[in-house]
Amino acid sequence: MPGTLPRLSPKVVGLLAALVTVLIWTAFIVVARASADPTRAPTLTPFDIVFVRLLGAGLVLLPVGWWLTRTQRSLQRQAGALPDAGSLWGLSPLPLRLTVLTGSFGGLLYGLFAYSGFAFAPAAHASVLLPGSLPLWTALLAVPLLGERITRSRATGLICIVAGDLLVGGASLLHALDGSGVWRGDVLFILGAFTWSCYSVMVRKYALQAVHATTAITVFAFLVYVPTYAALVGFGVVSGHVFTAPLSDVVWQMLMQGVASVVVSGITFNMMIRTFGPVRSTMLTAVVPGLSALSAALYLSEPLPWNVLIGLTLVTLGIVFGVRQAGVKKP
Q1: Which of 272, 309, 263, 282 is nearest to 125 (CA)?
Q2: Who contacts 127 (Cβ-Cβ below 8 Å, separation ≥6)?
Q3: Per-residue pLDDT at 179
Q4: Which of 4, 5, 41, 195 has its CA 20 to 30 A from that of 253?
Q5: Residue 3 lies in a domain
Q6: pTM for the complete prediction?
Q7: How far is 234 from 140, CA to CA, in rounded Å?
Q8: CB 169 within 8 A of CB 177
Q9: Residue-range definition of the domain harbouring residue 34
């Protein structure tokens, strides 16, 4: 029909999703470090930020989950089947087992590890060890769980990534006994990358749709963390500032860490996985380590020592090697 917009190919959709994901991930690293860095007198603790992250994402995605589950159950009724789609009181569109698995790794643990890491280590370390480690963990997990094989080119890339991670994280471990807590942040970043890789592989293994998966992990993490943390802070069991911090700070973090980082980039990242597969998707984020480290140096005045610069170079080269000659998987 005249005037009808042309249908985008899966590859174009995947590349557009990759662009959005890269931009948001870069902003996430810089904003999270600025918000958690103890030298900047932050108004929110890392656990507060996890709270507002899930609160912001939940306000958007809990109604979406209810609508998706209701739609699925309506279709089941029309087909004469028992309406049993979804879980968690009809808020998650995925079955309970998948909701718990994906929500634990992609929603709850990732946020706790990543934001806690920013309280100890600079953004440049996060740049290398969060997005930079994703291809390594994802490739290793994809071999037993998805039956993928590691090609020579990909193996070369993974070796570069390991070398870059060791150059950055290993340097801080050498100073573990001198009172510096940077190594703690590095370990937390690596754990965060591992949990997100687990989630990425599950998305591909179970062929989860982008909106369904992002909604499910948010619903699970929201229901587990938000009421628990609110009660602990309210009764003074843990020290938090989420109820006393300036409203503008809370709203900003809800929009940036919740709506943008969870809702928008969560959906675009899953679209990448459905197009390129989990290993190639994490490798398509090759520009995030360098871009976020340079942004942190520019906006946060963070130094870029020689080991971090070389580590960034090795990780970026490793990601490029790993994604070279990669075709597009059909969704």
Answers
A1: 309
A2: 29, 288, 289, 290, 292, 293, 296, 312
A3: 63
A4: 195
A5: no
A6: 0.85
A7: 42
A8: no
A9: 10-323
pLDDT, one tens digit per residue, over 161-186 is 888 877 776 666 666 556 667 888 88
First and final C-alpha spacing in the chain: 26
Three-state DSSP at 87 gives: strand
Q: Who contacts 143 (Cβ-Cβ below 8 Å, separation ≥6)?
A: 149, 150
Q: What backbone phi and psi angles, to 5 degrees, belong to 87? A: -160, 180
Note whether residue 328 is domain-resident.
Answer: no
Look at residue 329 and tell me if it is in a domain. no
CA 310 to CA 118: how far, in whole Å?
21
What is each CA distance from 149 to 138, 146, 253, in whole angstroms? 12, 9, 40
- Alpha-carbon separation of residue 226 from 52, 83, 93, 106, 119 (angstroms): 8, 29, 20, 16, 21
If one counts the domains in the chain, the total is 1
CA 201 – CA 219 distance, rounded (Å)? 20
Judge whether 256 lies within some domain. yes
- What pLDDT score does 320 carry? 73
Q: Binning pLDDT at 50, 70 and 90, where does residue 28 land?
A: confident
pLDDT band at residue 149, thresholds of 50, 70 and 90?
A: confident
Closest to 284 (Cα-Cα) out of 19, 12, 13, 9:
19
More confident residue, 71 or 309: 71
- Calpha distance 226→213 (Å, rounded): 19
- Give 161: exposed, middle or buried? Use CB within 10 Å, 0-12, 13-18, 19+: buried
Q: How far apart are CA 28 and CA 313, in angstroms?
A: 21
Vertex 147, ends 145 and 149: CA angle to 5°?
A: 120
Give the pLDDT confidence of 8-26 residue by residue, as tens digits.
777 888 888 888 998 998 8
Question: What's the pLDDT score for residue 40?
Answer: 81
